[in-house]
Write a structure and sequence with these properties.
The structure is a single chain. The chain has 12 helices and 13 strands. By secondary structure, it is an alpha/beta fold. It has one domain: Alpha-Beta Barrel (TIM Barrel), CATH 3.20.20.140. The protein is globular and about 50 Å long. The protein binds (4S)-2,6-dioxohexahydropyrimidine-4-carboxylic acid (DOR) and zinc ion.
C-alpha cells in the first residue's frame, strides 16, 4: 500500500501481536485491554506460575483472558503450551486438535522470567518435536543458550549454532518462529533459512541498543531478555522489519512488571510496550521511510506464516503528538510503560 509521507492518518488492516505476556489475575484484567485495543489476535505466552502445560490449564487461561476484555473488542487469544522435559506429546497433539494450543513455546531452563521449569536439553523434546512436525504445529523459541560460560551478549548467536540449526536439520519439516530476535546473526540466519522459519521483532529492540541500558546510569526499565545488543544489531533488525520480507513479523513481547520489581538490586526483565505498541512500530517505520511496509509486518506476514486468515477489520492511526503516561495502574500494581514520559507522533484512533 503506497503511503503519502505527509498523511495525517494511516489505515491498516487490523494487526495481530504474535508474542505477548498478559499475566494473570488483576494484572491480566488491565493489561489484556491494552493488547486487545488495536490487535485482533495475540499469541499468549504460557510462563505463568505454574506454567501452562496442559490443555485444561490453557483452556481455563483463555477463558480468563476472554472475560477480561470487552466482547466488542473481538479479540482472539491464541494459546501456547510451555514445553518441559517431561511434556507428553499426546497432550500437545490433543490440545492442537481441539483448537486450544496454536503453538508450543520453548524456554531454555533458566533463560528468563518463570523459565525454571523449562527445557534442560532440546534432545529431551525429540518425541514432542516429531509429533509437532507431523501435525504442522509451530515451535516458538526463546533463542538463548544460558550456560554460565557464555557471555550474555552472545547467547543468541550461540543458540543458532548449537541448538537452532541442528534442530531444524533433525526435523526438516518443523515450523519454527525465532522469537524476539536481537542480532544481525539471527536476521541473517532467518533470511537464509527455508520458508518454515520466521522471526518476531519487538518494538523495543528496534529502538534500543545496549547504551540505552547502561550509559549515564543503569536503566532498569530498558532491561529485557534477550538483552538489547550493540547498535549494528539494532540497525540489522530495522532493515529486516522494514524490508517487506514475509519472514519477519510483529511480536511485541510486552512483559509488564511492577515498578518495584524493576527498580531493584536484581531487577526483572521485561518491557511493558502494549500501551504504545503500534505507535512505536509506526515511529520506527516512519523514521526508516518505510511506512508502506508496516501493514505487511503488522497484519499480513504473521497470519500467512501461521496459516490463519488475514483480519477483516482495520485500525486507524492518527498523526498527533501525545505524551505517554509515566505510570499505568494494573489491579494495584504500578507499571512503567515503554516510552513513559516521552512524546510519540502517532496514536491509534480507532480499531474496527
Ligand atoms: O524480557 C522478557 N520478559 N523476556 C522474556 O523472555 C520474558 C518476559 C517476561 O515474562 O517477563
Ligand atoms: Zn516473551
Amino acid at each position: 500500500m503506497p503511503v503519502d509521507p505527509s498523511a495525517e492518518r494511516l489505515v491498516l488492516r487490523r494487526p495481530d501481536d504474535w508474542h505477548v505476556h498478559l499475566r494473570d489475575g488483576d494484572t491480566l484484567t488491565m493489561v489484556a485491554r491494552h493488547t486487545a485495543w488495536p490487535f485482533a489476535r495475540a499469541i499468549i505466552m504460557p510462563n505463568l506460575t505454574p506454567p501452562v502445560t496442559t490443555v485444561d490449564a490453557a483452556r481455563a487461561y483463555r477463558d480468563r483472558i476472554l472475560a477480561a476484555v470487552p466482547a466488542q473488542a473481538g479479540f482472539t487469544p491464541l494459546m501456547t503450551a510451555y514445553l518441559t522435559d517431561e511434556i507428553d506429546p499426546e497432550e500437545i497433539a490433543r490440545g492442537h486438535a481441539e483448537g486450544v494450543f496454536t503453538a508450543c513455546k520453548l524456554y531454555p531452563a533458566g533463560a528468563t522470567t518463570n523459565s525454571a521449569a523449562g527445557v534442560t536439553d532440546i534432545r529431551r523434546l525429540d518425541a514432542v518435536l516429531a509429533r509437532m512436525q507431523e501435525i504442522g504445529m509451530p515451535l516458538l523459541v526463546h533463542g538463548e543458550v544460558v550456560d554460565a560460560d557464555i557471555d550474555i551478549f552472545d547467547r543468541e548467536a550461540v543458540f543458532i549454532e548449537r541448538v537452532l540449526a541442528p534442530t531444524l536439520a533433525r526435523f526438516p519439516a518443523l515450523k519454527v518462529v525465532f522469537e524476539h530476535i536481537t542480532t544481525r546473526e539471527a536476521v541473517d540466519f532467518v533470511r537464509a533459512a527455508d520458508e518454515r522459519v520466521a522471526a518476531t521483532i519487538t518494538a523495543h529492540h528496534l529502538e534500543l541498543n545496549r547504551n540505552d541500558l547502561l550509559v549515564g546510569g543503569i536503566r532498569p526499565h530498558n532491561y529485557c531478555l534477550p538483552v538489547a545488543k550493540r547498535e549494528q544489531h539494532r540497525i540489522a533488525l530495522r532493515e529486516a522489519a522494514t524490508s517487506g520480507n514475509p519472514k519477519f513479523f510483529l511480536g511485541t513481547d510486552t512483559a509488564p512488571h511492577a515498578i518495584a520489581d524493576k527498580e531493584s538490586a536484581c531487577g526483572c526483565a521485561g518491557i511493558f510496550s502494549a500501551p504504545v505498541a503500534l505507535e512505536s512500530y509506526a515511529k520506527v517505520f516512519e523514521e526508516e521511510g518505510a511506512l508502506e511496509q508496516l501493514e505487511a509486518f503488522a497484519s499480513e506476514n504473521g497470519p500467512r506464516f501461521y496459516g490463519l486468515p488475514l483480519n477483516e477489520g482495520s485500525v486507524t492511526l492518527e498523526r498527533c503528538a501525545w505524551t505517554v503516561p509515566e505510570i499505568v495502574e494494573a489491579g494495584g500494581l504500578r507499571i512503567r510503560p515503554f516510552h513513559a514520559g516521552q512524546s510519540l507522533g502517532w496514536r491509534v484512533l480507532r480499531a474496527d
